[in-house]
Design goal:
Elements (H helix, E strand, L loop, with lengths): L1 H37 L15 H11 L10 H17 L9 E4 L2 E4 L8 H22 L3 H32 L4 H7 L4 E2 L6 E2 L2 H4 L1 H14 L11 H4 L9 H26 L8 H12 L1 H30 L7 H33 L2
Helix pairs in contact: 1-2, 1-10, 1-12, 2-10, 3-4, 3-10, 4-5, 5-8, 5-13, 8-10, 8-13, 10-12, 11-12
Length: about 375
């Protein structure tokens, strides 16, 4: 029994790892296609039909380029930086619930690598570790532009983690859990007709301000425009990865797209119901009655498809914003984080607490 459980978990981990790397690979292609569409040009269209093999060509280019290491006394740290950054990015996918439970070969396989009851804290902890990958790489490069980019990245990510954490506190006050799966299950369906006061189950309707704050902070945490000051080409050449080449540079670039993918998954899970969707009970009952266990598994896979549709939408939103808005000045970025988002998040916590007390007093 334990062997079957472990094999199921290993299979889930490998599948999640493969899908994460594939989406990160093709996000680079999607980024260039979205930019081309918004700028009225074709974009990459040579490698394969419509340029579909362009990411593979880019990957081959990264692997075959000269692996240059600058004259630095910290060669080990120079190599460690990108490795630490991509490992931290991949680890965050472990606690994301990708779907319900599949019934295969007499076993229940939960589509989640690790269902821990402190998943939110795990995500924040691992994201904080990613800062070390940037700082180590920038400092070990022995380059002033790399160091400035690393300092910018670390101060920016630490600053916006405060507002992001405060925005989540309001969600925790409502859900009373740190588990992402429990949060997703509490948003079952889309609308609850059985309550005394019918309401939308998705947290985005209960906490719109928390969602906006969390979304803005996600842009800053992933170093996406308009928060891409750490790699500002006009000022810092390439930022913290100026001295990197070959797959070390590829690790940094890949990790950014992995972070964007995982951020989209976390946003979809916390605020948009995760794998839940309107009419899911009807779909599950219909498929189960018509096809039995196979139908139940199909219903679970439909939920997985819905979650990935939400994720793809947010990835597109990240890209759309990048090619629509100019980047902030650094003082504007810090003012937004410390003087606007943090006070708004604290106000939202007080407002949420007041509403919860009022609802409890009325017995609703």
């Amino acid at each position: 029994m334990e062997v079957a459980f472990l094999l199921g978990k290993v299979a889930v981990i490998l599948v999640v790892f493969g899908i994460t790397m594939l989406i990160a690979l093709y996000s680079t292609f999607a980024e260039r296609k979205v930019a081309a569409f918004m700028q009225d040009r074709p974009g990459p269209n040579r490698a394969g039909w419509g340029g579909v093999f362009q990411p593979l060509a880019d990957g081959v280019k990264m692997f075959t380029k000269e692996d240059f290491i600058p004259d630095t006394p910290n060669k080990f740290l120079f190599i460690l930086g990108p490795g630490l950054f991509i490992v931290a990015a991949l680890m965050t996918s472990a606690v994301v619930p990708w779907g319900g439970t599949l019934h295969l070969f007499g076993q229940d396989i939960t589509l989640q690598a690790a269902d821990i009851n402190i998943a939110i804290l795990f995500v924040f902890g691992v994201v904080s570790l990613g800062v070390y990958g940037l700082m180590i790489g920038g400092w070990a490069s022995n380059n002033k532009y790399s160091l400035l980019g690393a300092v910018r990245a670390s101060s920016q990510m630490i600053s916006y983690e405060v507002a992001m954490g405060l925005s989540i506190i309001a969600i925790l006050m409502l859900t009373k859990t740190l588990s992402l799966r429990t949060m997703a299950d509490q948003q079952h369906g889309f609308f609850d007709f059985n309550s005394k006061i019918p309401y939308f189950t998705w947290n985005v309707f209960k906490q719109p301000l928390a969602f906006i704050i969390f979304l803005i902070c996600s842009f800053a945490e992933t170093n996406r425009t308009p928060f891409d000051l750490p790699e500002c080409e006009a000022e810092l050449v390439g930022g913290y990865h100026t001295e990197y080449s070959s797959m070390k540079l590829g690790f940094y670039l890949f990790a950014e797209y992995i972070n964007m993918f995982i951020s989209s998954a976390v946003i979809a899970t916390i605020f948009f119901g995760g794998y839940n969707y309107p009419g899911m009970d009807w779909v599950q009952n219909t498929l189960t009655l018509s096809m039995g266990n196979v139908g139940a598994n199909l219903a679970v896979l439909v939920g997985v498809g819905v979650l990935f549709a939400k994720i793809i939408f947010f990835i597109f939103f990240f890209m759309w914003v990048r090619w629509s808005l100019p980047r902030f000045r650094y003082d504007q970025l810090m003012n937004l984080g410390w003087k606007i988002l943090i006070p708004l998040a604290i106000f939202n916590i007080l407002l949420t607490g007041g509403v919860i007390l009022w609802v409890d007093k009325l017995g609703l």
